[in-house]
Design goal:
Strand content: 15-25%
Structural class: alpha/beta
Mean pLDDT: 90
Order of helices and strands: HHEHEHEEHEHHHEHE
Oligomer: single chain
Low-confidence stretches: 1-5
Shape: globular
Strand order of the largest sheet: 3-2-1-4-5-7-6
Radius of gyration: 17 Å
Number of strands: 7
Number of helices: 9
């Protein structure tokens, strides 16, 4: 399906298939959610309404349910075929999920109606990133939690990813630029709520092979191009 509004760059056929794999669910989604849980700290928030934007094929639903026990789980995606898979995944896991077909830059939910918003590996597909972030802010309640996990330009702009996948390259950002965008919109977090994972799959130039073979050591933070950024941020009760 093509989107005439050009607000979202859809996955390739290969990308769609990859999002159904064990590698995606176990080594990407699970790892990201576990890291976000660590950034939030204990106790994890429970109940309320949790919105998964860019939910894809619903492979996150089980992890989100088990971690946060939401009273209501909403999945939003722009691709109707993905939502069909999300519905099947929810049914398979015994999860009551509300599924919305729509755009992250135009979320069909009331103001301040969401307690937590999960955005995993979605933002780099969006053309209208600033507008989407405005929508995240709008639908979150004061004190609401934004769980943001994203790949950076250093990963997206590699030959492997360019060859097999499709993204709007002109909006890709570094980790620091994503953090600045979140802060600029008003979301609050400190260094304890930020993680810069350096996982093998996110290093598409060599997949970390030289380090795994012991030929060289991984470069430390500050000496490398960060490929991932995870943030557990809050919409403050008092935005002033």
């Amino acid at each position: 399906m093509k989107y005439a509004s050009a607000t979202y760059v859809e996955e390739t056929r290969l990308g769609f298939v990859f999002l159904r794999t064990h590698t995606w669910q176990h080594h990407v989604l699970r790892v990201a959610i576990d890291d976000l849980k660590r950034l939030i700290g204990s106790p994890l928030p429970q109940g309320g309404t949790l919105l998964d934007v860019g939910c894809g094929q619903g492979r996150s639903f089980r992890y989100l349910r088990d971690a946060f026990r939401p009273d209501r789980l909403i999945g939003l995606d722009a691709d109707p075929h993905s939502l069909e898979h999300s519905q099947a995944e929810a049914s398979r896991e015994g999860i009551q999920a509300t599924l919305l077909l729509g755009d992250c830059a135009r979320i069909d939910l009331p103001d301040a109606s969401v307690d937590a918003l999960f955005c995993h590996q979605t933002f780099h597909h969006l053309v209208e990133q600033e507008r989407a972030l405005d929508e995240f802010w709008r639908v979150l309640k004061p004190g609401g939690l934004l769980l943001f996990a994203e790949s950076t330009r250093a990963y997206i702009d590699t030959w492997v990813i360019r060859w097999f996948f499709r993204h709007p390259m002109h909006v890709q950002k570094s980790a620091d630029e994503y953090l600045a965008m979140l802060r600029g919109r008003g979301f609050r977090f400190d260094a304890r709520q930020v993680s810069l994972p350096y996982l093998w799959w996110s290093r598409a130039k060599d997949f970390g092979l030289l380090e795994r073979w012991g030929i060289r050591r991984p470069p430390p933070p500050g000496k490398r191009d960060e490929t991932l950024v995870n943030v557990a941020a809050r919409k403050p009760f008092d935005p002033s």
